[in-house]
Structures are given as C-alpha cells and as structure tokens.
Amino acid sequence: MENLPNCPKCGSEYTYEDMDLYICPECAHEWSKDASLEEDEDKLIVKDANGAILEDGDDVTVIKDLKVKGSSSGIKVGTKVKGIRLVEGNDGHNIDCKVPGVGAIKLKQEFVKKA
C-alpha cells in the first residue's frame, strides 16, 4: 500500500488519491500532489468538543462549569467568550481568551463549543 500524506487541514490519515489530487474523506479537503504544504503544516488545528475546527477570532461557549485556580468563583456553563486566540499550549490549553467576570485565561478545547 502506498504511503499517502496526511490531510493538511485536519490531519486525517485516511486520504486517497483521485487522478492528480489528494482528497480527505473526513473534511473533504482537496489538494494537488505537487502543491507545497509548508504554510498549511505550520498552522495549528484546534477542534472544539463537537469536532468543529476553531480559528482565531471565533466566539465559543463554555459547556461545563470550570473551577479557576486562585479564585472563589469559576466559569459557569453557557458563558460566551468572544474573540478567542489559538496558541500552542501545554496540556491542551490551546485557547487564549478573556472571560467576562474572570479576566484573561487559557481554556482547554474540550470544554468549549463554537458559538
């Protein structure tokens, strides 16, 4: 079996070729065999709890009550966070944002959904 490249958008390993294109069955991304993938490889891919791909500037909603270290209050379920920024975080904390009532904080991607 041939060694086909992973999808540059979602990272899926189930790509297949169709004439002179590679196709990803999971996200339907198509790219040519000779296209340079340097700019796509450097891009960070972050998915929310439902599997939707998040981008800088998106609005998200918290799907679980979260405790905040050093604070008596936490982040309640349903809190809407506007204008997130994606960062390369440790332990899955890939979302940098300002939560109303809490301030600047990093969130894990599995505790938010795209609004």
Automatic annotation (TrEMBL):
Residues 46-115 form the Protein YjdM C-terminal domain. It comes from the Bacteria. Residues 4-32 form the Protein YjdM N-terminal domain. It holds the Pfam family Zn_Ribbon_YjdM. Belongs to the YjdM family. This is Zinc ribbon domain-containing protein YjdM. It comes from Arcobacter roscoffensis.
